[in-house]
Amino acid sequence: MSNIDIRIATLFRPELSTVSAYHVADATGYIKLDAMENPYTWPDEVIEQWLETLRHCALNRYPDPHARQLTAVLKQQIALNNRCELLLGNGSDEIIQILLMALPPAATVLAPEPTFVMYRQIAQSLGLNFQGVPLQTRDFDLDVAAMLAAVKKYRPALMFLAFPNNPTGNLFDAEAIRAILSATPGLVVLDEAYEPFADCSFMPQLQEFDNLLVMRTLSKLGLAGLRLGYLAGRREIINELDKIRLPYNINVLTQISAHFALTHTQLFAPQTAAIRAERAALMQQLNALPGIVAFPSAANFIMFRSAKAGAEELFMALKERGILIKNLHPQGGMLDNCLRVTVGKPDENKAFLSALRDSLGR
Ligand SMILES: *Cc1c(COP(=O)(O)O)cnc(C)c1O
Fold it and tell me: Where are the beta strands (DSSP E) in the chain?
C-alpha cells in the first residue's frame, strides 16, 4: 500500500470505501430523457421579467438565512397548518442528508427497494444501518407484511417512501402507507418529488400523524438547475433538523428565482398538463411494441421492461441513435431488463419511439 492509500484506509470512515460516487451520464449531443427534467423553458417575456427581478439582487451580501419570502410563499401554496414548519434544502438531496445526519450512529434507516438510490447511498456514507425491504414483484407496491415485520425487527429511526416511487413510477397504496405510519414509532418521510404529475399527496395527513414528514422539490416541476427542496413536518421536529442545516444553504439567486417562478403560477400548469398528456400517449405506444411492457406511472417518466432484447443492448442501440435514457438493468433483481425514460416534448418522444422500434427490429 502506498502512503496515500494508508492515509485513506485509516483516516476516513471505512463505509466510504464501499460506496461509489453518484454517477451522472454525459448527455452532450443527446436527446436527454434520462433525468426526469421538465423539457420546457419559459416564454421570452417571462425570462425578461425574471431577469429584471435579479437586477437588484445583492450578490455581495449573504442570502437571508431563513429565506423568509420564499418560505412564506411555499407555506401559503401548500396550505401548511400552524403546528407545522418548513425546512428548505439545496435540493431534496440535501434534505435527505440533513435528516440522516440528525440520527444517532447506530440508527437503522428503512426503505422499500427498488427506490431512489440516494437514501441508501447517503445512509451508508454516514455509516448508518440501511435496510431495504423488497417491493412486491407483481406491481411494485409495498409488501405491507414485510414492511411491518421489518419495523418490528429493526425499529427504524427513519423510513423513506417515495410517492410516486422512482424508478418504478407507481404510487404506493395509501392504506398501506397509513398502516405503516400508525405502526412505526420512527419518522416516515414521504418523498413527493413527482407530486406535480400525480393526483395524490400526504400533505393533508400532517394533521393526523406527528411522525410524518412530507418532502418535495422544484426540480421535477421545472427548476432542476436551481436546487430547491423542502420538508414539511411538525414544528418541533423541523426545529431540531434546522440545527444541522448550514445557515446559507439556499443561495440568493435560488431564493429570488424560485419566488418569481412560484408566484407566476401559470408558468408550470400548462407544462405539467402537456407532460401528463404525453405520458399517456407514450405509455400506450410503448405497450403496443412487441416484447415491451411499460408499467403504470404517476410521475414524469415511464419504466419499461424488454422481454426479448436485453436492456443493455437496447440502451446502447438507443444511444447510437442519439437518445439517452436510463438503464436500470445494472441494479439487478426486480429491475432486470428494465429501462426508464423521462417524458419529453412530443418530438423528443417521437424520436425515442422511432429509435426504439428501430433498435428492436434489428
Ligand atoms: C429526483 C428525486 C429527488 C431529488 O431531487 P432534488 O431536489 O433535485 O435533489 C428526490 N427524491 C426522488 C424520489 C427523486 O426522484
Answer: 31-32, 84-89, 108-113, 129-134, 158-162, 187-191, 212-217, 229-234, 292-294, 301-306, 323-324, 326-327, 338-342
